[in-house]
Amino acid sequence: MSLNKNEKAVARLRKKKHIRKTVFGTAERPRLVVYKSLKHIYAQLVNDANQKTITGVSSLSAQLTDEVAKAKNKVAVAEIVGNSIAKKALDLNFEKVVFDRNGYIYHGRIKAVAEAARDSGLKF
C-alpha cells in the first residue's frame, strides 16, 4: 500500500506527536531537533523547560556555505550540519543532548546528522 504525499505528512506528524511525549529537553540536556526539507537540513538545540531555541545550524548557514558547496550529496551535507551543531553545543558546554528525529525514520540524512554529532563529541 503506497501513501500519497499528504498521507505521508500526516503519518510523520502522528509519529512526531508520540515522540514528543517522551523526548524533553532541559537546561542541562537540551533536545537536538532535526528537520529536513527536499533540499536542505536543519538542526537546532532546544530547551523545552524555557521554550527557547539555544542555537541552530542549517545547510543554509553562512559559515557552512563553502563546505556545503563542495559536498557530493545530501548525506554529506547532513554530516557537515551534524559536525557543526556538535561543535556549537560543545562550545556552549552541552555534552549530552536528547535526540529528536522529528517523526522521520532514523535512516539516511537523519542518521548522518546523528552519527556525525556523536563522532564530534556529543553524547545521546
Notes on the structure:
This protein has 124 residues and is α+β, with helices and mostly antiparallel strands. It has a single domain (5-119), classed as Nucleotidyltransferase, domain 5. It has helices spanning 5-22, 65-70, 74-91, 109-119; strands at residues 31-36, 41-47, 52-58, 98-100. α3 (74-91) packs parallel to α4. The longest helix has 18 residues, at 5-22.
Could you name the ranges where pLDDT drops below 50 across 5 or more consecutive residues? none
Helix content: 40-55%
- Kindly report the spatial arrangement of strands forming the biggest sheet: 3-2-1-4
Give the rounded overall mean pLDDT.
94
Q: In CATH terms, what is the architecture?
A: 2-Layer Sandwich
Strand content: 15-25%
Major pleated sheet: 4 strands, mixed
Radius of gyration: 14 Å
Number of strands: 4
Q: Rough shape?
A: globular
The ordered H/E elements are HEEEHHEH
Task: Write down the CATH class.
Answer: Alpha Beta
Q: Count up the domains.
A: 1
| Global structural class | alpha+beta
Number of helices: 4
Distance between the termini: 34 Å
Write down the oligomeric state.
single chain
Short synopsis of the structure:
The chain contains 4 helices and 4 strands, in the order H-E-E-E-H-H-E-H. It has helices at 5-22, 65-70, 74-91, 109-119; strands spanning 31-36, 41-47, 52-58, 98-100. Strands 3-2-1-4 form a 4-stranded mixed sheet.
